[in-house]
Amino acid sequence: MNDCVFCRIVAGQIPSTRVYEDDDVLAFMDIGQVNPGHVLVAVKRHAENLYALDEAQAAAKLKEPDDKVAEAHARFRLGQHLLRVGQADEARAQIAEATQLHPDSWAMWRQAADKDARGLASGPAFWTRVDALGSKPYYPRPDIA
Ligand SMILES: [Zn+2]
Q: Taking the complete model, does pTM exceed 0.85, yes or no?
């Protein structure tokens, strides 16, 4: 019996919210959502480490983000770091730039929203965007080849 948590998720022995699946990989919602929409992608065959796919296999499965999206993610992570170390003004500037570069990212946009007393995203602009979603999901399907 393989007690690897990822193999058990792939086999359906541990419940998960699957958002994408093909012969090689399974993408599912992370149970520890750091940001809403956080998805984990697991290789279906068991692997001992992070290097389950060789470079060619990884390139065939995972698309490189374009330069704008890559910069947006870098600025977003920098903004999160700056928030943690108390540099809120510079953090907000980095996160705002990230949301301009990658406007479809719910996580970035939510982080840039005003916060209520509990620290949750709030404010008229936030709720206007949420309301505009209607019945559409707030996160896009992961772009996995
Ligand atoms: Zn495994």
A: no
